[in-house]
UniProtKB/TrEMBL annotation:
One of its GO terms (molecular function) is oxidoreductase activity, acting on the CH-CH group of donors. Belongs to the steroid 5-alpha reductase family. This is 3-oxo-5-alpha-steroid 4-dehydrogenase C-terminal domain-containing protein. It comes from Ramazzottius varieornatus (Water bear). InterPro entries: 3-oxo-5_a-steroid_4-DH_C, SRD5A/TECR. It is found in: Membrane. Pfam families: Steroid_dh.
Length: 293
């Protein structure tokens, strides 16, 4: 079994390096572990899509009954015992920054520009997501369900470890960052990051102005006039850019995993707005990608 896994890992690695020109020169044992994580990541992305398209994780707008998440289904996610702000910090912050940096610095190729760029962009996102974002947002619910929190922690550990492992050990061509496709990726990452932050910030402002913290404002202005979830759209663009820069199998899985959440959840959020604001909510607005979905 282990020998078969090792052969599969070598075959995928050969294919990946021939296609991209990027090498992953680690021991056979290390490669087998890495690509086992890639396989687990792919299964996690698929499972996330299959579960979330039926029963979205019950937090935020989707913790209420009206969207097919009845209270029995909500309770199946376990007791509501995790403080929302602290929960977000623990699930995203330490693994995406400290653990990532630790693994990165133990790698063989951490001292090259492409590797540092990828590490820096990843840690920037998770420093923001774990240590800044939770303290800016005003969540409607003070606590989240244990299952929702574990559903964030588990995949985050897997992906953060596997991406750090790739970024620490991959050998990129010297001119990698000057390639046109990679530059497009860097621009997409930057644009996506700004859109994501701006949309989250806007939502936080609306929340502050509401009388009841449980309530939601009518979304309007710039991208909110086109899609229900500009913050998810921004993050989707951001990780698409990261994939173009890294060109790593594990980052393809990460893009698929995050997209599995955005595409399913955004559809339910759109449905939520249509119900809540009925005729006032324009029919042409999409869930996630302007004009498309
Ligand atoms: N990488 C990943 O896999 C992943 C997974 C999930 C989220 N994220 C990121 O985490 C961030 C937050 O995601 P989320 O799922 O919590 O997003 P969300 O549903 O958009 O909610 C974000 C915050 O804005 C508030 N809010 C949303 N719409 C509002 C409105 N119309 N009026 C007033 N307040 C409103 C919410 O209040 P309530 O608490 O009352 O709902 C919550 O505090 C996003 O940037 C997202 O991209 C990443």
């Amino acid at each position: 079994m282990i020998s078969l896994m090792s052969q599969v890992a070598t075959a995928i690695d050969d294919w990946s390096s021939k296609t991209t020109g990027i090498l992953f020169p680690v021991s056979s044992y290390h490669r087998t572990i890495h690509y086992s994580m890639v396989a687990a990541a792919g299964l996690t992305a698929l499972a996330t899509y299959l579960v979330q398209r039926k029963v979205p994780a019950p937090y935020g707008k989707l913790r209420r009954r009206q969207l097919g998440v009845d209270s029995k289904q909500e309770k199946a996610w376990g007791p509501k015992i995790i403080p929302t702000t602290l929960g977000h910090t623990i699930s995203d912050g330490p693994t995406g920054t400290f653990l990532f940096l630790y693994i990165f610095l133990k790698g063989a190729h951490y001292n090259y520009a492409a590797n540092w760029t990828l590490a820096g962009l990843f840690m920037l996102h998770f420093f923001q997501r774990g240590f800044i974002h939770p303290f800016i947002m005003k969540y409607g619910d003070t606590h989240i369900r244990l299952g929702v929190w574990l559903g964030a922690c588990g995949p985050n550990i897997l992906f953060h470890v596997a991406i750090a492992d790739w970024v620490a050990n991959a050998v990129y061509p010297r001119n990698h960052l000057q390639k046109p496709l990679v530059m497009v990726g860097l621009v997409l990452y930057a644009v996506g990051f700004v859109v994501n932050r701006a949309a989250d910030w806007q939502q936080a402002q609306w929340k502050k102005q509401l009388r009841q913290r449980e309530d939601y404002a009518y979304p309007k202005g710039w991208l909110f006039n086109m899609v229900a979830n500009p913050n998810y759209f921004g993050e989707f663009v951001e990780w698409t850019g990261y994939l173009l820069v890294s060109q790593a199998p594990i980052c393809l899985m990460w893009s698929l995993f995050t997209a599995a959440t955005w595409f399913t959840r955004a559809g339910f959020n759109l449905e939520f707005y249509r119900k809540k604001f009925s005729d006032n909510y324009p029919r042409h607005r999409r869930a996630l990608v302007p004009f498309v979905y």
